Amino acid sequence: MKVDGKHFRSIWRERDGWSVGAIDQRRLPHEFVVARLTSCEDAAVAIRDMLVRGAPLIGATAAYGMALAMREDASDAGLKLAYETLVVARPTAINLKWALDEMRATLAPIDPVERAEAAYARADEIVEQDVEINRGIAANGLALIEAIAAKKPGEVVNVLTHCNAGWLATVDWGTATAPIYLAHERGIKVHVWVDETRPRNQGASLTAWELGHHGVPHTVIPDNTGGHLMQHGMVDLAIVGTDRVAANGDVCNKIGTYLKALAAHDNGVPFYVALPSPTIDFAVHDGIRDIPIEQRSGVEVTDMTGRTADGRLETVRIVPENSPVANYAFDVTPARLVTGLITERGVLKPDRASLAAAFPERISAAAE
After folding, report:
1. Residues of the binding site
2. Binding residues for substrate
3. What is the mean pLDDT of residues 100-117?
4. Which of 17, 206, 242, 274 could bridge 176 with an S-S bond, Cβ 3.0-4.6 Å?
5. CB-hemisphere CA count at 13 Å for 211?
6. What's the pLDDT band for 362 if we cut at 50, 70, 90?
């Protein structure tokens, strides 16, 4: 996608051929900074501290982390240590484990002297696969926006999204934003309501930043505004991303997604979830019961960072010193509230049969 007219991806191999460059998303929207990852531990910290975030990008970063590890120690012990270091970096996004399993399956059977080269090659494949998957999501989701645009010719199609499921959460294009970007490039009048997405404000700081740099009309709103907009006919459809989809169609996404789905259901607004197939976890059969929900530091709730009037970046506390806080990072939206799942293989019903029919190879992988 574009930043001031220049194409960027969220992660890439640097010109030296082995180190990894990634946009430091902790610094956005106020500073555009590129971090250089040179070790497996660098990759683990980038994932854990949310220098990179978004399920597909976490997977891509983990893949490169394995490659960096193999460059340092390609022994069986080194492979085992790299896997164990990276797999615990974030607990909810299933793409992390998927990418690591793919890397281990490639590397374990071959001679250690060949592992570093093979690791970089497989990591590159995972990165390119993500881009192609997201292009498929863009094309399949575009049809939904086109159908709405056809019913209101000349008018704007209003899309509500939650958290950041844009190109910054993937390698390129994004998931929830991919159909929006394609619609914009096709000349469809599209406008995005961007939830701020407390407590880390990924909507306000990331989604708004990337939409603005790509020229897509948008408006940032407080998290609790979506229901009001839906009541007054100001949202044509909602599209969100996801960190894990259970085999029964339950969807785990950033905290607050469930409430948006309830409001959409109450007001007859279509509620879609855009996802790459590696996000489907066929080993989990009940999302509400079985998907682990990450609880993050309370500092994310008590403190906020922003730019002052004189240009300084400052962090301030907004919660009383003695007030305890809870910070559940995700919630699960039951399949009954989801209109459809936008995947690279079409828009699917959120149920076990549809997911299994579309991605039978993922069922086989989950059984192994």
Report:
1. 53-55, 90, 202, 253-254
2. 53-55, 90, 202, 253-254
3. 96
4. 274
5. 30
6. confident
